[in-house]
Amino acid sequence: GGAVRWVASRGFVQAEQGHPTRMIGVIADITKRKEREDFLRESESRFRMMADTVPVLIWVSGTDKRAVYFNKSWLDFTGRTMEQELGDRWTEGIHPDDRPGYRETYTAAFDARQPFEIEYRLRRADGHYRSILDRGTPQITGRGEFVGFIGSCVDITERSDAEQRLREWTTTLE
C-alpha cells in the first residue's frame, strides 16, 4: 500500500570451503513497537513540560524510597541542581527539627503503600525556611506493580504564619 514501515532484520551467511553460498535471514515488521515507543516518548515529554511549568514542587521516588526526580519549580525553590537533590540528599534542606518527623511519616506511608500528608520547613534558595505541605501518593502501574511515590508540595508559609498569629491572639484574649 505504499506505507513506510519499521523493520528489524537479522541474518547470517552460510559458506562452503570458505566461500559464501547463501544468506539466511528474517525481517520482522516492528512498526507497532516503534509507534508505542514514540507515544511513550511524547507522553514523557508532555509530563515533563507540564511538571516543569506548574507552580508546585513535584518529586518522584523509586522503590528504594530514594528520590529520582524533582521538577524545575522544586529546583528553583531550593536553588540546587538535580544532582544535589537526588537520593536522600534533598532532605538536607528540611529544617533539622522537622527531619525525624518527616522520615517517620514517609517511611511508614511508603512501607504501607499508603498516601501521606505532612508539613515541614524547607530551606529556600535564599536560605530562609518556608512551611511546606507535602502530599505523597504511591504509584501503581496498570499491572498492579508498585513503582515508588510521587509527591507535590506547596508553600503554606502565609497560612502557617496566620494560624500562629491567631493562636497568639487567642491566648492574649483569654
Protein model, in words:
- With 174 residues, the chain is of the alpha+beta class.
- 37% of the residues lie in helices and 34% in strands.
- It contains five helices and seven strands.
- The protein has helices spanning 31-53, 72-78, 82-85, 99-112, 157-173; strands at 7-16, 19-29, 57-61, 67-70, 116-123, 129-140, 146-155.
- The strands form two sheets. A five-stranded antiparallel sheet has the order 4-3-7-6-5, sandwiched between helices.
Write the layout of secondary structure elements.
Elements: E1 7-16, E2 19-29, H1 31-53, E3 57-61, E4 67-70, H2 72-78, H3 82-85, H4 99-112, E5 116-123, E6 129-140, E7 146-155, H5 157-173
Antiparallel strand pairs: 1-2, 3-4, 3-7, 5-6, 6-7
Determine the structural class based on helices, strands and strand pairing: alpha+beta
The average pLDDT is: 90
Biggest sheet, spatial arrangement of strands:
4-3-7-6-5
Biggest sheet architecture? 5 strands, antiparallel
Element-level helix/strand string: EEHEEHHHEEEH
* Spatial shape: elongated
Beta-strand content estimate: 25-35%
Q: Quick one: how many beta strands? A: 7
In angstroms, what separates the terminal alpha carbons?
A: 85 Å
Low-pLDDT runs: none
Rg calculated over all Cα atoms: 26 Å
- Total helical elements: 5
- Helix % is 25-40%
